[in-house]
Amino acid sequence: MYQSDKLHEECGVFGLYRRGDTADGVISETYHALYALQHRGQESCGMAINRDGVISCHKDVGLVTEFFTKDRMERMSEGQMAIGHCRYGSQISLNRENAQPLLVNHLKGAMALCHNGVLTNAAELRAQYELSGAIFHTTSDIEVIAYAITQQRLKLGSIEEAVRAAMGVIEGAYSMLIMSATKMIAVRDPHGFRPLCMGRLGDDVVFASETCALDAIGARFVRDILPGEMVVVNRRGVEVYPPIRAEGSGLCVFEFVYFARPDSVVDGVSVHQSRVEAGRILARNHPVEADVVIGAPDSGLDAALGYSYESGIPYGIGLIKNKYIGRTFIQPTQNQRADSVRIKLNAVTATVRDKRVVLVDDSIVRGTTSARVVRILREAGAKEVHVMFSSPPFRYNCYFGTDIESEETLIANQHTKEEICQIIGADSIGFLPLEAVDELTCGVKIPLCRGCFTGEYPIAPPKSTAKHKFEIPLNPEGKEKQS
Q1: Fold of the 270-322+331-443 domain
Q2: Residues 144, 127: Cα–Cα separation, whole Å
Q3: What's the pLDDT band for 334 if we cut at 50, 70, 90?
Q4: 282 vs 90, 350, 392, 413, CA distance in Å?
C-alpha cells in the first residue's frame, strides 16, 4: 500500500453515557460525533452499544458513512450508553480485526474498549502475555491494554480499580474509553499525549477526542481530562480519580499544526487561533515580496490567513481540494499514485497566473506532495512560488501515535533547507522557528511534546517496534490455503 505524503494520526474516540432510563438516540448521537472526528482516522470505524448490561459491537473497515448506513443503523439495538471509534491504521495493520472498539468477554463480565495513541511497551507486554498463554487476534495495542486490565481485574474487585492498576503497567500514549455493563471510564495517559475532553448533553455525560464532536451533537464542553486522570460514570454520577504519576509534559504539538479540526479547542487553546498565529510568525520570520498568499487545503488555510494578516499581502483561494476523492492514495501503480495529487488538488488559475505566490502548508514529510503542488501552481502560470511551513522541520520519528515509516524517509532529516527548496522546485522556503512553538500555543495547559523536531522525547522510545502480522496465506491461484 502506498503511504500518503502526509502525517497520519491514530484515532478518534467518543463515548456517551445516558443518565436517564431511556434507550433512544444513543446510536445517532455516536454516529454524528464519529462523523465529526472522521479527520482523525479514515481506515475503520465502529461503535459498541450497551443495552441493559449487554454489549453489542459493530465495526468494519471504511468511513463512518460507508459502514454505518441507514439500513444498518436501523437494525442496531439502542442502548443506554455507547463508545465509538474511527481509526487510521498503519500499512501493516489494515484489517477488520484491528477495527475498534474491542469487545472482551471474561469471567468478571464483558467490557468494550477503544483508544487513541500508541504504547511504547506493547511488544514487551504482548510477549509476556503470550508466554503466559494469551492468544492475540489483532495487531492493535488495545488488545494488549485489554489483557492488562483483565489480569488486574482477576486480582482486584472493581473494573475501575483494575483500570487504575493497568495504568501503572502500560506505558506510552493513550486516551481511552472503557465501557462495562454498568460503567463508562475515561482515562488519559500521565503525559497527556493525545487530547480527551468531557461534556454534558443535558444530564448525559459525553467524552470525545476533540470538542468539535461535542459541538456536532449539541453537547456543552465541561473540561479536559487531565494527564493521568480517570473519570468513572455510573448511575450514581461522575467520580473523578486524581492523576496517577501525572507528568503533564507530552501533548502532541501536531494537534495544533495538523491533526485537530480548526474549530476544536485542545487543552485550552483554539486550534484555529493557533494556526493563524503560526502564519503571523512565519510572515515575521520569512518575509517575501509577493502578490498573493494561498493555503494548502485544509490545514494550511488558517496559517495562510495569518501570514496574509501580518504581511499585508492579499489572501486568495489558490488551490481547490476535491473533498469526495476518498482514500485515493491506495493505488496499484506509481503513475496512478502521482495522478492522485492532481485529482485531489487543482489550482485556481485566475488567482495564481502571473503572480508571485506564497503557499502556506502545515508541514513537509517526504516532500513528494510539496513538489507536485509547486509544479501544479507553476503550470497554472505562477511566476514565483514561495513555500512556508507552519511547523519546524520534521526530522525524527514519533513513537506516540503519528505514523512515520522511518527517519530516512523524512526529507528534513536527510537534506538542508536549501536542498529541500531545490528538490521541491520552490523559489524559497521557510519553516516555523522551533522557539516560536510556545507562542502559537500560548495558554495551553500541558507542555508540548516536540520530539519530532528535536529528537528529545518526554519518555524513552520503545525498545522494540516489532509488529505481529496476521495474514492469510494464499496458494499460487490466489485461493486461501487450508490448514
Answers
A1: Rossmann fold (3.40.50)
A2: 10
A3: very low
A4: 32, 25, 10, 21
